[in-house]
Design brief:
With 199 residues, the protein is mostly helical. It has one domain (2-198). It is built from nine helices and no strands. The protein has helices at residues 2-12, 21-45, 48-57, 71-82, 84-97, 103-113, 116-139, 146-168, 177-198. Helix 1 runs antiparallel to helix 9 and helix 8 (146-168) packs antiparallel against helix 9.
Length: 199
């Protein structure tokens, strides 16, 4: 599970370094979308009035996130997707109802929740990272599960490829730079964990 969690870290929280330039170029948009969602979550949950107002529109709650559990990014984005309509309805009234809000915060949230392209990016992120998250859930148990991960690994790689290629409208014979980067992240983490097991 540790290995898979750090695989998600490499996808969701990529750093802009010289050695990491290609990965950053391909994955930084994921970090941006996730950070947007985090800003929105904090905007809502850090002010009781906003939080109470959102509760009038949605019975499903936003969740706190664990800094070291990168699977929680997927859970947060999935929760945003579920309450998308509620957020959009709520965003239309926060402008004139909440007193003392910073105008930038209000405009930022309103722009994001009403931006179809932003929601499309969330759907895409969930579509391929949820496959990795499913493997984490299998290993998040007290029972021996390593054999299950080995069984799931190749299938997961193929499913991730299928999601990315379908999104990019590429044929199997074409190259996807984004998939190559994601695949390399997965392979590097997998090989590191295998080396550890074999020592």
């Amino acid at each position: 599970m540790h290995t898979l969690n750090f695989t998600l870290k490499n996808i969701f929280a990529v750093k802009n370094t010289k050695a990491n330039a290609l990965v950053y170029a391909q994955c930084s948009w994921i970090t941006e979308v996730s950070n947007d969602a985090l800003i929105m979550k904090n905007f809502i949950m850090n002010r009781s009035m906003r939080f109470v107002m959102l509760n009038d529109y949605s019975k499903m709650k936003l969740l706190a996130m664990a800094d070291t559990r990168f699977a929680s990014w997927i859970i947060m984005l999935k929760r945003f997707k579920v309450i998308k309509r509620n957020l959009q309805d709520w965003s239309l009234v926060i402008d004139g109802t909440c007193i003392g809000m910073m105008m930038w915060d209000t405009q930022f949230v309103e722009e994001k929740v009403l931006d179809d392209l932003w929601w499309d990016k969330i759907n895409y992120i969930i579509a391929f990272t949820e496959l990795i998250y499913d493997m984490i859930r299998v290993t998040d148990t007290d029972k021996p599960s390593l054999h299950l991960v080995y069984d799931m690994w190749d299938t997961t790689i193929e499913k991730v490829k299928s999601v990315i290629y379908r999104h990019e409208e590429k044929r199997e014979t074409e190259q996807s730079l984004f998939y190559d980067v994601v695949y390399q992240i997965l392979e590097d983490r997998w090989n590191n964990s295998n080396t550890h097991f074999n020592v």
